[in-house]
Amino acid sequence: MAMDFLLTTYSGFREYPNPNWSIVMQAPEKNLAFDLVRVTESAALSAARWLGKGDKEAGDGAAVDAMRLSFNSLGLDGVVIIGEGEKDKAPMLYNGEQVGDGDGPAVDVAVDPVEGTRLLANGRPNAISVIGVCRKGCMYNPGPSFYMQKIVVGREARNVIDIDAPVKDNLGHIAKALGKDINDLVVFVLDKPRHAKLIGDIRSAGARIQLHTDGDVAGALMVADPRSDVDVMMGTGGTPEGVIAACAIKGVGGQMLCRLDPQSYVEKENIERAGVDMREILSVESIIRADDAFFAATGISGGDFLRGVQYTGSGAITHSLAIRAKTGTFRYIESHHNWDRLMQFSAVQYD
């Protein structure tokens, strides 16, 4: 019986039968994560000029301007679902803003041009520029929620966590999944007054702790990074940051369980008015509801997993991370930027 040749397109993929006609294979598609790295590099190069100068608004504003210019050169039709700035009253890529040139795949976008504005202003480690992208209509929109409770683990422990379980039980299950003792584990926790009991429970269980003043996207990435000492992240952090991090955690096959956790009466009232169920337990799968998701991050200040921008006089060196969820590919990228050539065509002035 004659077999018709199949050639279709979907989200940038081209499908064709393999030679034995038994399964349908997919030709490689363009990896948007590489384009997104160009955007986070642009933001990081601009923001890093403000390292340690005590002006977080100026550093954030420089990153936003550079990110917007770079984004709009990309061949995609993007809408910002998770913008930046409302919580901090800083300049923003606002929710609902169109990004890209409009000629390309339709995507939802989550951005934070500077995750860790205080870290940048004070010259502290782990300020990064981050972007998460997925197919249009597939990214969770947290509405007026600013904070959520989170527990984040890597691939090996993705099926053993329970956001409602006691801390000791979760740590015991995670340790067993990783083939470790509880006292081998390292837990990332934001150093906030709201975490006093959590910190006490972790210490009572016997696990070790890394306390960080800011940067819970960075914390989630440390969990995902096989080079990192961090095994799990726990505690309440930013809701927008949780959505961004979910793109990365999905890509490496980890898990993040979350529940909205308003930190003020006004925030709680706004969430209720929006009709959002604060009891719902969210997972990576419900936050990013598509496999074709991408994540990119570039270090601004030096950090535990991404080095900061290094200016050389004639250019700069950046260190980035690119993740593609569909394949689970996790790439580290070191880029060397030459001012003489870059400034001949770049709309962003880096030097």
Mind explaining what this structure looks like?
With 351 residues, this protein is of the alpha+beta class. The chain has helices at 32-47, 56-71, 117-121, 167-178, 196-205, 216-224, 239-252, 265-273, 284-287, 339-342; strands spanning 8-10, 13-17, 24-27, 77-82, 98-99, 106-115, 128-135, 147-153, 186-190, 208-212, 232-238, 255-260, 293-299, 310-311, 315-324, 329-338. The strands form 3 sheets. Strands 4, 5, 6, 7, 13, 14, 15 and 16 form an 8-stranded mixed β-sheet that branches. A 5-stranded mixed β-sheet has the order 10-9-11-8-12, sandwiched between helices. It has a 3-stranded antiparallel β-sheet with strand order 1-2-3, with no helix packed on it. Helix 1 runs antiparallel to helix 2 and helix 6 packs parallel to helix 7. The protein is globular, with a radius of gyration of 21 Å. Residues 1-28 have low confidence and may be disordered.
